[in-house]
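Q: Could you fold this chain for me?
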Amino acid sequence: MMDFDKILGVFREDTNRAFLRLMGDRGTVFWVPWSLRDERIAALCEATIRSGRLSARQDDAMVEIVFGDRSARAELADEPGDRHRTLLALNLALAPDFEARFLWDSTGSDSGAFLTLTPDQWREIEALAGASFAHRVLSITPELNIFTQLTPRMRPPAPQRATPKDSAGPDPSQRRPWWRFWG
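A: Sure. Below is the predicted structure, expressed as structure tokens.
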């Protein structure tokens, strides 16, 4: 199973470098290219959650995602938007046990990076990350197709980081006039 403490560490560090490391970990994050056969999405997700219960079946017009005794179907139109519909079906089948979400740091690529966690884990990360959560993670919803509508400009801005007091130099109220060099 993926190392949740490592994921928490990435959100705690909250740097582009940390998220690039996370996205490079194929045991934690799965990547979906726009041209991928839809039934492969379930196999990629299963490789990260390691449940032994996630699979998919596909024909020309439909993909069915199966998780244990639950399943969800997505209609296919042989277009890049199919991946998004398949991810919606994936989340329907996984709920309430897991939810896959898009990682904003993969925007602009020909593939999307996705992280699948339990709802409790998502809540813990959101509480830890605070304002930077929306800058890093996007829920998969029917209203915005990640593969055909999402652009880097839609990404919420990174929150301003507070600078430590000592990084701005000495406290101005403690400065001496320029002509006093000693004590």
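A (continued): DSSP finds six helices and seven strands in the chain.
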